[in-house]
Every structure is written in C-alpha cells, then in structure tokens.
C-alpha cells in the first residue's frame, strides 16, 4: 500500500508540516565522563625491552655472518 492510501493524503507530507521532535539529554543530565589517564605499572621495563631487542638483533647478525661464511 502506498503512503497516500494509508494517510488519506495525496503524496508524502512536507517536512514543514511535520512536528519538530528533538532529542535532548536525559532528566538529571548525562553521567560524568571518566577521562583520567590511567597508565598501568605492570610489564617489562624499558631496559628489559632494549636488551631483548639487542639480543635478538645480535643473534640475527650472528646467523647472517654464519651464512656468509658458508656461501664463501
């Protein structure tokens, strides 16, 4: 069924004829927003991360050197 048949109006209603309905905040307002910066204290230290990365890089370069010797 078309809108004209349902509403007994020719065609769609104009936007100007529609009632104004605007959303607003709930009664009493919104709850406060938590925005504080919470940085966790757990996890490895910067030195531990650096040493692990340095160790992985050193091992990789050792493997590259071994491969170069075999290729020669």
From TrEMBL:
It comes from the Eukaryota. It is found in: Mitochondrion inner membrane. The keyword Transmembrane helix applies. Keywords: Electron transport, Membrane, Mitochondrion, Mitochondrion inner membrane, Respiratory chain, Transmembrane, Transmembrane helix, Transport. GO terms for cellular component: mitochondrial inner membrane; respiratory chain complex I. It is a single-pass membrane protein. Pfam families: GRIM-19. The chain crosses the membrane at residues 45-62. Complex I functions in the transfer of electrons from NADH to the respiratory chain. Accessory subunit of the mitochondrial membrane respiratory chain NADH dehydrogenase (Complex I), that is believed not to be involved in catalysis. Belongs to the complex I NDUFA13 subunit family. This is NADH dehydrogenase [ubiquinone] 1 alpha subcomplex subunit 13. It comes from Salix koriyanagi. The lineage of its organism: Eukaryota, Viridiplantae, Streptophyta, Embryophyta, Tracheophyta.
